Structures are given as structure tokens and as C-alpha cells.
Amino acid sequence: MKKQTKECPHCKSKDTVKRGYFQTESKGKQQRYFCNSCKRKFIIQDAFYRMRNSKKKISLCLDLFFRGLSTREIQSHLKAFYPHNSDHSNILRWVRKYSMKISEYTDNLKLNTGSYVEMDEMEYHRRKSHKAKRGIDENWFIDVICPETKFMIASSYCKSRRQRDVKRILNEVKEKTNNLKVITTDGWLAYPKAIRQTFGISNKTHQLNVIHNQKNASKGDGFNYPIERLHNNIRARTKTFRGFHGSLSSANSIMKGYEIFYNYIRKHQAIGKTPSELATNIKFENPNRWLELIKMSH
Fold first, then answer.
1. What residue ranges do the domains of the chain occupy?
2. CA-based angle 172:173:176, to the nearest 5?
3. What is the CATH number of domain 116-281?
4. Where are the alpha helices (DSSP H) in the chain?
5. Beta pairing partners, 179
């Protein structure tokens, strides 16, 4: 029996061999391995390990959700095409789980973006859970976009739009980009100090290391159209939610999923391709980009 280089998940040994197959209802035939060191059997623990549904079905649900279908509509769709249906609550859990899993990978990528970015915030309410007191929390979605590549560099769904929330997003932008020179924002008072503390002041010129360009629409300075267009797209997708429901982390995971959909899945009309094709070095080989991103993140 020919030895393989598959690492044993129990003892980390690579002295393993193939040892037959076993059939599963959702994933079909699975290869089983045997470790000669610890004498235990195992299967490859991929990103869908212990999931009772196939990777094709799960990635399909992610794609349908971010293209505009509700979880109940997806449940109805699955009932027509799959013998074993999935509950709408399970679909939402898949969306949250794999959105955060992919973002852990994509958030650490270095980007080939331009020297000019736009930053803005969008108010978006969140309904409290049934266990908590009834009411609505006014939360904020803060994001940064590169107008040249249309790539959303960083984003976060925050409880507030305080200076520390702005700084956290700016620090992420600083780590991902190399040649940033200009940041355009609206007139919100938290931006100047947050940008100064993040990017610092030059010892030679005694000026900011980046140019802060503030536009105040109420004073006739106009709007930051690229990022405002993105916000309109987000509102169009999330209007059926009637506000997020549940925890802040749940809302943030859904918005992270939309960031992935916007950057890597959805073709942008202005550039005729996805923003990731201009801003990253990722090359997709499979039309199912959700599945490829999940595998890359594992």
C-alpha cells in the first residue's frame, strides 16, 4: 500500500496510508486514512468537515443570499432541487460562519490599490434580540473604498462611530496599502484626529503624512460619489432585512459577507470585472468563487 503525505490530525505524523472509503449521504464517497504512528483512522478535515450538507449546496446558499434572496426564499428554492431540505436558520448560520472564515483570509491580503481612497459611514439600525429589551440600536457601517479599483479596502459594522472605531478601520487600511497619499471623508469631527494619530506627521514638513480632503455637502462641497454609490447598493440589498436582528457580531458577519461578495464575486459595471481582479493577485479557476475562497481560507 503506497504511503501518502497526509498529516494525521491526532499526532501530526506524516506516516500515513490510505485505508479504504466510506459512503456519506451528503458528500458521497470519502477517502479514509490510517496513521502508522498513533494507529488511528481519519479523513481530511477540510473547511466542510463535519458539515451534514455538501459544499456545493452551502456555497450555493451564500451566493443566493448575497444576490438578494432571503433565507426563507432560499429554503423554498432548496426544497425544489435537493432531496433533503435545510431550515432557514441553518442557512443564516452558514452565511455567518463562512463569511467570517473567508474574511479572516481576505483581510490579511496586501492590495494593489491607488493612492487615493474615500472613507464614509452609513447609519444602519439593528433590532435587539427577543431575550433583551425590545427596541432599536442605531449602529454604523464604516468603510473605505478605492475609487480607482472600486475595491472595498476595509469595513466594519460598529456600535458607534467614535474615534476609536474610525481608527480601527484606518489601521486596517494602513496595513493593506502601500502608497496611500489622499483620504477623502465627509465633515464628521472624528476623522481629522483619527487620521493624524494613525498616519502621523512628517518631521520635515510638520504636515500629515497623508492629505486629508474633507467634503462637507451642507456647505456645497459635493458628495463622494464612488462610496455613496456603494452605500446605495448596500441599502438596496439590506432593505428587505428591515434592520438587522440579533447581536452586533451577527450583523458584522453578514456585512463582511457582503464585502466579499462586492469585492470578489459581483462584477462591477464601471470596470467590467470584479474589483479583486484589479486590486489583488488572486486568480480564480472555478466559476464557483465562493467555494474557491472557502478553500483558500482553510
1. 3-42, 47-108+285-298, 116-281
2. 85
3. 3.30.420.10
4. 55-66, 71-81, 88-106, 163-176, 190-199, 225-238, 248-260, 276-279, 289-297
5. none
Q: How far apart are CA 256 and CA 251, in angstroms?
A: 9
Half-sphere exposure of 40 (CA within 13 A, CB side): 11
Cell numbers standing for residue 82: 435537493
DSSP 24: E
Best CA proximity match to 260, nearest among 59, 38, 20, 46: 59
Say if residue 66 is exposed, middle or buried (CB neighbours under 10 Å; 0-12, 13-18, 19+).
buried
Q: How far is CA 207 from the centre of its chain?
A: 34
The more confident residue out of 46 and 34 is: 34
- Per-residue pLDDT, averaged over 222-227, amounts to 82
